[in-house]
Write a structure and sequence with these properties.
alpha/beta, Rossmann fold, binds zinc ion
Length: 230
């Protein structure tokens, strides 16, 4: 039975770069992909653009990325740099999780150099709670979220440890084609995004004996394993 995988990023580009290889693998497996960008990342405006024009362009690029995976892109209207963990943001995201009946959620790690990323982590954590809890009354039924894990993002490095490792070798070419739809992948003057995430997938892959891998972290409490005997 096909699943619905929702990836949540603070800015357009975050989820596509860090979760995109796994999303591509699920897309190839027949699963439904939904990418939610909590802001459009419009304040990384290149020279010669207005913030409004760059916002519209990023929304268009996110839609093209999702389309290549046969999925959907949702870019919310909170201004870039002004993302805060409010109940309104949490419920808006929780309602999307319920609307799409998400089975799994991928999102930011808790620590980051970027305040919007840390806010996105807390917003998503609480949205998962509100989306899953049957006794929390909302117009839509609860979402069947079974898995949630945090992406490996270069800005979210403090205390991040890879825990889940996925072989994404077969999906890598689809991701690489799709990620080129995003302006920052190859054109950002501040960071070589495509080069970094491609190299990271090779490094992670080498550790598990495949060409490309992508990793996710989890909270210490989720690492508990119940065993009866050795
Ligand atoms: Zn970001």
């Amino acid at each position: 039975m096909s699943k619905t995988i929702m990836a949540v990023g603070a800015h357009t580009g975050d989820a596509q770069l860090t979760c995109g290889m796994l999303l591509a693998k699920h897309a190839m497996n027949g699963d439904k992909i939904v990418i939610v960008d909590l802001t459009a990342g419009e304040r990384g405006t290149p020279a010669g653009w207005t913030v409004n024009d760059f916002r519209a362009y990023n929304v268009e690029c996110a839609a093209k990325f999702a389309k290549k995976l046969g999925g959907e892109s949702i870019v919310l209207d909170t201004p870039d740099g002004e993302l805060y963990d409010t109940k309104e943001e949490e419920l808006r995201l929780a309602d999307l999780m319920r609307q799409y009946q998400a089975d799994a959620v991928l999102y930011h790690w808790k620590n980051s150099l970027h305040k919007d990323h840390e806010a996105a982590h807390r917003i998503t954590d609480n949205a998962i709670f509100y989306a899953s809890l049957p006794t929390f009354e909302r117009p839509l039924p609860p979402a069947p979220i079974k898995r949630f894990m945090c992406a490996e993002n270069w800005e979210d490095e403090p205390d991040f440890t890879p825990y889940y490792w996925f072989d994404v070798t077969e999906a890598f070419p689809l991701w690489k084609e799709a990620i080129k739809e995003l302006w920052l992948a190859e054109h950002s003057p501040s960071f070589k995004y495509l080069r970094y995430y491609e190299a990271l997938s090779i490094v992670r892959g080498a550790r598990i004996g495949v060409d490309h891998a992508t990793c996710f972290g989890t909270s210490p409490t989720a690492k508990r394993q119940k065993l009866d005997l050795l």
